[in-house]
């Protein structure tokens, strides 16, 4: 029988490789029919992102493919040969309730970075919501094990540094694949490195957090590449499409102020 403590310790030891994973593209939100009334946002000055959106969609390029491909192959070999078996063992020995609690705690640890990303993007409400979520879940939610904030109407919205830069009109730049960190681009990669460098948590906690986060999307990543003729292209397109979605849509759930406004309609 697999020892639970040993399995979880193993996850801590190698889970830093989670960042080499690629998120599957998010589902596109359905567009609701609009009425004849013109909202204030229709006449507002366009943001840098709105002004540069067409360029954002067309700016994807891969001049570094000759370097990206071998790095991607090494990352994929490590993920499939080492990380995936450990994550499967973690899921096998961890009760569903505990897995959900650990996932919530891992998400809570990303809130400070969401605050920074929101501020860079000029999203003061988003920064305030992320701050409130972090305070509420860290205290009342016992370190984030319980997501009390969402129940209170403070919806989760991950806003990283790359998203903040995109809101200011910064383009993606060339596609980049970094060792361990995995698929990224010239705009997003510095933010990912900063998050790793300035993270004040002990290495063991950081590794455990990464492992728990990856465990939630391991099956999607596996299905994404297992039947692909060219896994590199599949991962590249999945990453870039997902980033376009995250930057443009930002959050599927409405902010507290938006929910209030919708309730009045």
What does this structure look like?
- This protein is mostly helical and 265 residues long.
- Helix content is 62%, strand content 3%.
- Strands 1-2 form a two-stranded antiparallel sheet.
- The longest helix is centred in the N-terminal third of the chain and has 29 residues, at 65-93.
- The radius of gyration is 19 Å and the shape is globular.
Distance between the termini: 57 Å
H/E series, N to C? HHHHHHHHHHEEHHHHH
Number of domains: 1
Report the radius of gyration as a whole number of Å.
Answer: 19 Å
Strand order of the main beta sheet, please? 1-2
List low-confidence stretches.
Answer: 1-44, 257-264
Using the alpha-carbon principal axes, give the shape: globular
* Helix fraction by DSSP (H/I, runs of at least 4): 55-70%
Structural class call reads mainly alpha
What is the arithmetic mean of pLDDT? 77
Would you count the extended β strands for me?
Answer: 2
Summarize the biggest pleated sheet. 2 strands, antiparallel
Number of helical regions: 15
Proportion of β residues?
A: under 5%
């Amino acid at each position: 029988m697999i020892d639970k403590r040993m399995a979880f310790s193993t996850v801590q030891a190698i889970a830093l490789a989670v960042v080499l994973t690629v998120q599957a593209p998010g589902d596109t939100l359905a567009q609701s029919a609009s009425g004849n009334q013109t909202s204030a946002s229709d006449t507002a000055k366009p943001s840098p992102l709105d002004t540069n959106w067409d360029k954002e969609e067309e700016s994807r390029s891969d001049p570094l493919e000759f370097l990206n491909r071998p790095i991607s192959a090494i990352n994929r070999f490590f993920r499939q040969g080492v990380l995936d078996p450990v994550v499967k063992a973690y899921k096998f020995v961890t009760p569903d309730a505990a897995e959900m609690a650990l996932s919530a705690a891992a998400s809570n640890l990303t809130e400070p970075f969401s605050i920074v990303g929101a501020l860079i993007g000029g999203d003061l409400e988003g920064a305030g919501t992320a701050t409130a979520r972090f305070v509420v879940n860290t205290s009342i939610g016992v370190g984030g094990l319980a997501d009390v904030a969402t129940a209170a109407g403070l919806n989760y919205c991950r806003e990283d540094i790359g998203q903040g830069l995109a809101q200011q009109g910064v383009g993606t730049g060339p596609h980049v694949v970094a060792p361990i960190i995995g698929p990224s681009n010239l705009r997003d990669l510095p933010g990912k490195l900063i998050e790793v460098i300035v993270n004040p948590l002990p290495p063991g906690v950081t590794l455990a957090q990464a492992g728990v986060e990856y465990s939630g999307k391991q099956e999607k990543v596996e299905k994404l590449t297992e039947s692909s003729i060219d896994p590199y292209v599949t991962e590249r397109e999945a990453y870039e499409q997902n980033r376009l979605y995250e930057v443009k849509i930002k959050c599927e759930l409405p902010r507290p102020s938006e929910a209030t406004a919708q309730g009045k309609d």
